[in-house]
Design goal:
The protein is an alpha+beta fold. The protein contains five helices and six strands, in the order αββαααββββα. Helix 2 crosses helix 3.
């Protein structure tokens, strides 16, 4: 069967930063459990991941000599790396493109629908974050894969 894929959707806004320490702890824990590549260095998702110990100093180093606040960059990176905030952003952006009340997006895989004949969720590449300084500015490129299925609303009602 032939499948069509939307390869890229830019997200223009940064999700709001959590206001409470407990929320931050949950986001940082979520990022630790996510397989992430930061500037080419791979961190396998686990409770003992060292990503937080690397990301904060990286942000500090890259912000030297810039007007950017390294802690703000670190915090925005954590929010963007957390699947819960990133997948919500992509879901609402994609859903807005549909333009039909009869169609609905549903996440596929571990947290969503598993298609008939599919034993496991699709293998996803690691989330990739590249931070760099160029021409006096800090740049970030974040690539994350989220898989959605497009269904008729009547087919998924109550599921």
């Amino acid at each position: 069967s032939s499948a069509l894929f939307l390869r890229n959707i830019p997200l223009d806004t940064t999700p709001p930063l959590p206001a409470h320490r407990e929320d931050w702890s949950a986001l940082e824990e979520e990022v630790c459990l996510t397989t992430v590549q930061v500037n080419g260095l791979l961190f396998n998702g686990s409770p003992s991941s060292q990503i937080l110990k690397v990301l904060r100093p990286l942000c500090q180093e890259l912000c030297k000599g810039l007007r950017e606040n390294s802690e703000k960059i670190y915090m925005e990176s954590i929010v963007r790396l957390a699947n819960s905030s990133n997948s919500a952003d992509s879901y609402f952006s994609l859903n807005a493109l549909l333009g039909s009340q009869d169609l609905v997006l549903k996440p596929l895989g571990e947290t969503g629908i598993v298609l008939k004949g599919q034993n496991a969720p699709p293998e996803m590449p690691p989330t990739d974050l590249t931070l760099y300084q160029a021409n006096g500015h800090l740049h970030a490129v974040l690539t994350e894969s989220t898989t959605y299925g497009l269904f008729r609303r009547s087919d998924v009602k109550g599921k």
